[in-house]
Write a structure and sequence with these properties.
This protein is of the alpha/beta class. The chain folds into 2 domains: 140 residues, Winged helix-like DNA-binding domain superfamily/Winged helix DNA-binding domain (Arc Repressor Mutant, subunit A); 179 residues, Vaccinia Virus protein VP39 (Rossmann fold), CATH 3.40.50. The chain is built from 13 helices and 11 strands. A 7-stranded mixed β-sheet has the order 7-6-5-8-9-11-10, sandwiched between helices. The protein has a 4-stranded antiparallel β-sheet with strand order 1-3-4-2. Strand 3 and strand 4 form a beta hairpin. It is elongated, with a radius of gyration of 24 Å.
Length: 325
């Protein structure tokens, strides 16, 4: 049975407002009004340290904003609007209505759904509880990435693939065993050396990989020479990203089995510090920008999907776009 964590006495409005005078606590109440969560789940949704989450929960619990339920060693928290004292309810409803359409709140909602999805898989899964444990057992035995890696077997073995802005070679490493040839392109010779070393460390034959220095706006590839190209977490670094997309289109081969470009990048966000700390030119790409940039580059049949967020990740949400020439 749920027990209220504090008894409301003669707290002043100023005291109550001070308890909500932190953006994290506002987000916390907003999320907990939607779903009952354990502390571990809540900090993953909000992307904050567990110690910070516990501290903020203590402030809200002492103020009487939360209801707490225990189940074995676990504690679950929830905001039940109808059961809040009138004074607290009025303050929260007023503040909540002023939050507006904040990108950070939308990200909280997406991570909340991801956490709930994991909870559902764990609780219902394969043969009831056994299936909930099956994923953990399988991960312990085989790791977490074997399914993703094995699905690369769907790649056409005759393809010449380009990894554009290859960096340290993550995509090149994954694709090269499955296709005829990979052209790994990056502007930085140091990155290309790191990509070569990556394949060597993994004992992977790189005879079918060409490491090429070049800009995305001036690719060192012949026109119509590439079946499929991938550009993973690079486009936000490019000032003239439309020109880069046009250049990618130039090198793609027109065929029934190829002529595709995969772009993975960040959804629009407001983390301005990325411009200074990581050299980002664009703060991700909004839904409208994603549609418009492929249109301007004259791609057809563009499919865009937001990727399910990894609740353990600290960055913005990602999208994947597949475009045909």
């Amino acid at each position: 049975m749920a027990n209220h964590t504090a008894t409301i006495t003669s707290q002043s409005t100023v005291e109550l407002l001070s308890q909500l005078g932190d953006a994290v606590r506002l987000r916390m109440i907003r999320v907990l009004e939607q779903e009952e969560l354990a502390v571990g789940e809540l900090v993953r949704v909000l992307q904050i340290p567990q110690s910070s989450g516990s501290r903020h929960l203590r402030v809200l619990a002492d103020g009487g904003w939360l209801f707490k339920r225990t189940s074995g060693p676990a504690a679950y928290y929830r905001v039940v609007l109808d059961d809040l004292p009138i004074q607290l309810r009025a303050i929260w409803v007023t503040l909540r209505d002023q939050l507006g359409d904040d990108p950070n709140l939308r990200e909280d909602d997406r991570r909340l759904q991801a956490v709930l999805g994991e909870r559902m898989a764990d609780s219902e899964g394969f043969f009831g509880r056994v299936a909930g444990e099956w994923d953990d057992l399988r991960n312990d035995m085989f790791g977490r990435v074997f399914t993703d890696n094995s699905l690369l077997g769907f790649l056409n073995p005759t393809w010449h693939v380009a990894d554009l802005g290859c960096g340290t070679g993550n995509a090149t490493e994954l694709m090269s065993p499955w296709v005829e040839r990979v052209s790994a392109v990056d502007r930085s010779p140091e990155m290309l050396e790191a990509a070569k070393e990556r394949l060597r460390e993994r004992g992977q034959d790189s005879k079918n990989v060409d490491f090429l220095t070049g800009e995305l706006t001036d690719l060192p590839l012949e026109t119509g020479s590439i079946d499929v190209a991938a550009c993973v977490l690079v486009l936000h670094h490019v000032d003239e990203h439309i020109d880069a997309l046009k250049e990618m289109k130039r090198v793609l081969r027109t065929s029934n089995n190829g002529g595709m470009l995969l772009v993975v990048d960040m959804c629009g966000h407001d983390r301005i510090e990325y411009r200074h700390t990581m050299g980002h030119v664009h703060l991700g790409f909004s839904e409208e920008e994603r549609i418009e940039m492929f249109k301007e580059a004259d791609f057809t049949n563009v499919r865009v999907n937001k990727l399910r967020p990894d609740v353990g990740a600290s960055g913005p949400s990602l999208f994947a776009a597949v475009a045909h020439i």
